[in-house]
Amino acid sequence: MKQTILFPSGFFDVCRVDEDMEAEYEAVAATGLYHVVLYEYEQWFHGGRLVLHNKPSYPVEAVYRGWMMKPEQYRRFFDALRQQDISLVTSPEAYELLHIFPRIYPLIRKDTAPILVYPEGTQPDLEEIKTHFCRFMVKDYVKSVKGTAFPAFFSRDITREEFDRWMKLFYQYRGELFTGGICVKEYLSLRRYGGKINEYRVYYVKGEILSVSRNAGQGDWTPEPPQKLLEKYKNLDSPFYTIDYAELENGIWMILETGDGSVSGLSEGQSGEAFFRALQKGLTAEKRNADGSLFP
Ligand SMILES: Nc1ncnc2c1ncn2[C@@H]1O[C@H](COP(=O)(O)OP(=O)(O)OP(=O)(O)O)[C@@H](O)[C@H]1O
Ligand SMILES: [Mg+2]
Question: Burial, 99: exposed, middle or buried (Cβ in 10 Å; 0-12, 13-18, 19+)?
Answer without folding.
Answer: buried
